[in-house]
Write a structure and sequence with these properties.
elongated, mainly alpha, about 160 residues, about 75% helix
């Protein structure tokens, strides 16, 4: 039993596509880059949490509760950059704050990683560089304007000095 698309379904599909087209036309490259980098960070953190779960399942942890808690926490922490990246991609005003906070937390995390052995210094460099890149993209006035951050219409600018 096949269903043919009604004119209403087709118009809804066109409206969604048109909305996505205008959104991508309005989104500055810097916001797109920040969104993609946040998404990559979230995927990498989620993969790390997945590896931790695999090590828990197939390894021999000293403390199962601690290993499980750590893996779940890492997976939950992956949600922040993923949500921020999605919000940036959709030009949501709320997304800039979580994206900036995530990057500010990532920078001091890269320091101890750099002192570890193996591939950790490479990961630390990648983390620090992506964090700086996202911050650089998001503090740009074009990005702030596209996300609706800054002075709002109808709100008088803050007065500096002694308030006189």
């Amino acid at each position: 039993m096949s269903r043919t698309a009604s004119p209403r379904d087709e118009s809804a599909g066109r409206a969604e596509t048109a909305g996505e087209d205008t959104l991508s036309e309005r989104r500055p490259r810097r916001v797109s880059a920040a969104a993609l980098l946040c998404g990559v960070q979230g995927v990498v953190v989620a993969a790390l949490g997945g590896v931790m779960l695999l090590l828990l399942a197939f390894g021999d942890p000293d403390d199962v509760t601690q290993a499980a808690t750590g893996a779940v926490m890492v997976l939950l922490l992956a949600a922040l950059p993923l949500a921020a990246g999605h919000g940036l991609w959709r030009l949501r005003r709320w997304s800039r704050g979580p994206a900036v906070i995530t990057q500010l937390l990532a920078l001091p995390t890269a320091g101890p990683m750099a002192g570890a052995g193996g591939l950790w210094p490479l990961g630390a460099a990648a983390l620090a560089l992506t964090a700086l890149a996202v911050l650089g993209c998001l503090v740009n006035p074009t990005a702030s304007e596209a996300l609706g951050v800054g002075a709002r219409e109808g709100v008088p600018p803050a007065r500096g000095g002694s308030g006189r």
